[in-house]
Structures
1.
Amino acid sequence: MSSPHTTHDAKTYCATLIGCGKMGSAMMTSWLDNGLVSRVDVVDPSPLATHLSNDPRVHYYPSYQEDMPDADILVLAVKPQILKEASQKIANNISSKTVLLSIAAGQRLSTLESIFGSNQPIIRTMPNTPAAIGKGISVSVGNKYVTSAQKETADTLLRASGEHKWIEDERLMDAVTALSGSGPAYVFHFIEALANAGKKLGLDADLSMSLARQTVIGSSALAEHDGDVSAETLRENVTSPGGTTQAALETLMDGRFQTILDEALNAAKKRSQELS
Ligand SMILES: NC(=O)c1ccc[n+]([C@@H]2O[C@H](COP(=O)([O-])OP(=O)(O)OC[C@H]3O[C@@H](n4cnc5c(N)ncnc54)[C@H](OP(=O)(O)O)[C@@H]3O)[C@@H](O)[C@H]2O)c1
């Protein structure tokens, strides 16, 4: 099956998912919930999303089977360290009409081209974990064999779990990984640090964590609601001249916080480069 199938005017796709852990299961759930797939063949010896096993569109296999139908899109969602090994096992059986989409951090298009052949359409994507609730953001770059129809397929499936953007220069993927791929962990750590600071001011641990967590939840929701308002203006809107927020921001914006973020993102970028 190499072209989209039409059911009730909506295109649906046949997908193969190699690796059904945290990211793979989140992506598959979004495709199923949005009615975007007619069939998903899942290859994973220990899949996470077994609750979907009653869905007639989902077929589980512990290893790749040669008689699987050709998919419109094959998503590689295994850990970067085993991407090459997992790819080598399937490379000889993949149709050149199937577009491959790898979400493995740090793994370059050229690495996959060397395994699957230089005329295989391949997309490298960096998603993030809010994809599990449809609030993710993913960024993709494709090789020159990806057709506009295949780009549309990838776009449709990736937008089911949040926003999706294309870039042209693959070298930027390490920076994307450092910012949005790993970024949710930074925000969760910010909640931890905020709660710790509250405790040091005398709040009990539970109250401090509730205040920190809901402050980030509420502020994120506000940023989403006021999507056309800049972060700078949102910040200024809660900062009265000479008030408490300004007192805190004078410390927070003295350069040290930015330096720490610069260092953290550089460390993630370096690790992404090492993984390749
Ligand atoms: N988690 C994130 O925040 C995030 C964000 C952006 C991108 N990514 C990328 O997404 C990819 C998956 O990450 P994840 O967090 O979802 O990892 P994960 O939860 O460990 O999922 C990977 C799954 O693949 C299975 N697997 C191992 N070998 C396999 C094989 N040969 N064939 C098929 N399946 C196999 C694993 O089974 P076992 O557990 O039995 O080994 C596991 O269920 C990674 O490459 C990562 O770089 C992750």
2.
Amino acid sequence: MEPPLKAGALNPDRVAALLAGLDDRIKHLYLHLPFCERICPYCDFSTAVGAGADIQGFVGSLEKEADLLGRSGVLSFLEPQDGTLYLGGGTPSWFEPDVLAHLLLWINTVCGRGWIEATLEMNPEHADQERLRVLQKGGINRLSLGVQSLDRGVLRRLGRVHTPDEVLDAVAGARAVGFAISIDLIFAVPGQDRQGWCSDVEGVLALEPDHISIYSLTYEPGTPFTRWLGSGRIEALDDDWQAEAYRWAAESLRSEGYERYEVSNFARPGRASIHNQAYWDGSSYLGMGPSAHSLLGPVRTANHFSLRQWSAALMEENRVPWESIEALDDLDVARERVLLGLRTSKGLDLESLPSQYRQKVAERAGELVREGLAGWRDDSTLVLTDRGILLADLVAVRVAP
Ligand code: SF4
């Protein structure tokens, strides 16, 4: 038996050697582009106000990251053919068209082309024809639009700068160019009422996107929203409101032909995000940019969260900007499979767990089935019921070894 990997003994060269031993190809690439026009008061992502930022410096650091990953050998395992590319942030669409053109040309040169799905996160106010053409030419074929709401008041409260009309224009423009379209919506925003949320869902359904993601607002530590919640300036909507809002939206989407393939994600048949599914399936992926994570065979890495530290690691210390590197053992793998698998409509296949944990997980799964929170699709696949989905994370923790 192989001795367990020790995190302290790991570095990019060693990770490349591990990947070679496993004959593992990396089919999924994530790039984190950390700039926004302004910072929304609920956001805890790694992002900075773009105005005045050193964009050239940022692009240079990203290129250096790829260079160092190339020198260690890790990048040679990236295989775009039939893989996926995802440009997230931040607001990737905030970049000027010439910067986007440069970035996409660089990615295609360094990593190759052939992505079956190449997504860019876009804010509706950026969907002008020039940008859309540049993205299409650079190989992007899917846009994830940060719509969040079609209600002016809710958008204002969320700190978003776009208007409902800009959403309609963005969808029409993106569709005319031929992009697959995904729309993000947020619910349980302070002051939102049931009627407003229903209008948002109906309004988005009328736009007929390929994919819709719905997220309830979360109060992350350190954000203005969390401070305002503490001081009583805003009031959170309670769990019952949220459960009812989610249930209603899920039912509306289902009745319009959208399949739920993960707790927050719904798609027309055949239009589920391949990139997101790779995360939930436990496939290897490479992340670059501040705060980006990677799963490289049995190793998980996390880049420095802050733009400054990430950039300093690359440009001053001349090293791959991994802040943490963790060797996953069987227990980590089993936990992750349970926590991610149960959020998906594919469910959790017990056969995919390391064998020593199957019995324990099966016993705990039996309790959920008796409580009506989950059911067996076949002899070994556990799927959550509609009731279980509402409590997905809590339920998964009960089953995890
Ligand atoms: S646009 Fe998105 S990434 Fe930027 S601050 Fe707002 S929520 Fe965060």
